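[recover] target loaded
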């Protein structure tokens, strides 16, 4: 298999075969993200992708059960191209159970409902969506390129097709100024979508990103560990989802908070309250990971 640049995947795709379909991200303007900053976006040819799939089959055999197609926003590819790739993948790996990609709301919404249904029929199982926030002011500030209403539209379209929706919520991205609006707005958006997964990611700034400059300038204040946990508490309290699984499956998080909503809400809130009883000094801090932040 051939890979260009650094390949990123969700933790839940750790066991998946990774076949690069696109290079970089077509948006690439989020102020918090450094993943594709030095990469010019392009779509790989269907022929090259198929060649890599055959190479993988020859190496691993036909027993692959899950395939993830990076890079960022592979959903932007033409529907016919994606259909061809997905069907070919299923032919090569008869025991395949899952095909997944990244796709933000902006690019999901470029496809009509019938196109998404075609992708589902071709084999697309799940889309990982970096919602980050459901607060329009926060979304604009981080240059996400999408509104809360557009996030809801994209999520609802996918749910209607039967494609699993894995939404990512970024704890702390609203800063101290809008943490509550960020949590409550996100709960409203997620409740409207009722995603299959709500994945918690705690914001940790990276160098050479615009948001790092905001932090250094003092125009954005990072949340402390307890403040981040309280924000999650507000999110969980306000979620009106039926059967959505909330998971803390990332090293960035301060505490593991997992459960199915609404069944496990009380248990999840109790876990947060337990964490809030721990001396805040015992949690790792953002400053520890980024000593240049003073």
């Amino acid at each position: 298999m051939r890979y260009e640049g650094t390949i990123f995947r969700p933790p839940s795709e750790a066991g998946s075969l990774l076949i690069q379909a696109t290079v970089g991200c077509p948006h690439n303007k989020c102020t918090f993200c450094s993943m594709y900053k030095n990469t010019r976006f392009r779509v790989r040819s269907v022929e090259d992708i198929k060649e890599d799939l055959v190479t993988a089959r020859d190496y691993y055999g036909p027993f692959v059960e899950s395939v993830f197609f990076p890079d960022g926003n592979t959903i932007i590819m033409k529907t016919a191209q994606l259909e061809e790739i997905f069907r070919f993948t299923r032919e090569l790996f008869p025991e395949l159970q899952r095909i997944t990609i990244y796709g933000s709301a902006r690019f999901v919404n470029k496809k009509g409902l019938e196109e998404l249904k075609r992708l589902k029929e071709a084999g697309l199982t799940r889309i990982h969506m970096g919602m980050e926030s459901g607060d329009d002011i926060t979304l604009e500030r981080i240059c996400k390129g999408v509104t809360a209403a557009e996030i809801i539209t994209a999520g609802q379209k996918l749910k209607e097709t039967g494609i699993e929706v894995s939404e990512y919520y970024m704890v702390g991205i609203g800063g101290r100024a809008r943490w509550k609006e960020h949590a409550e707005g996100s709960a409203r958006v997620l409740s409207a979508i009722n995603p299959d997964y709500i994945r918690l990611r705690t914001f940790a700034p990276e160098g050479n990103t615009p948001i790092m400059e905001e932090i250094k300038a003092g125009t954005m204040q990072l949340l402390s560990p307890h403040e981040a946990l309280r924000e999650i508490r507000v999110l969980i309290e306000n979620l009106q989802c039926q059967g959505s699984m909330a998971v803390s499956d990332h090293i960035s998080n301060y505490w593991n908070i997992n459960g199915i909503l609404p069944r496990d809400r009380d248990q999840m809130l109790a876990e947060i309250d337990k964490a809030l009883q721990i001396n805040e000094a015992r949690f790792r801090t953002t400053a520890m990971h980024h000593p240049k932040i003073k």
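[recover] notes: DSSP finds eleven helices and ten strands in the chain.
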